[in-house]
Specification:
By secondary structure, the chain is mostly helical. α4 crosses α5.
Length: 92
Amino acid sequence: MKKNKLQNIENWLDERFDLTPIKKLITHKKVPIHNHSVWYYMGGISLFLFIVQVLSGLLLLMPTLPSLVMVKIFLSPIGSLFQNLKSSEVRS
């Protein structure tokens, strides 16, 4: 039953957007075989760490103005995490 629904959705998308060239490209694409050394994983690791750094930087850019919303956040269980982040920032 689910297979028929998925097939119907796939057929509708194919009629609507002409996905056959994309499907052919994906099925014929060859992935190179790597020896999985440390250098192979460095790109993914550096990208992940860069994203973490950007997201944490964006969080630190947010102003800390006292408001009712912030009070609710700080009183919630996850609020202690934010309080510890701010206190470590002040000490350094």
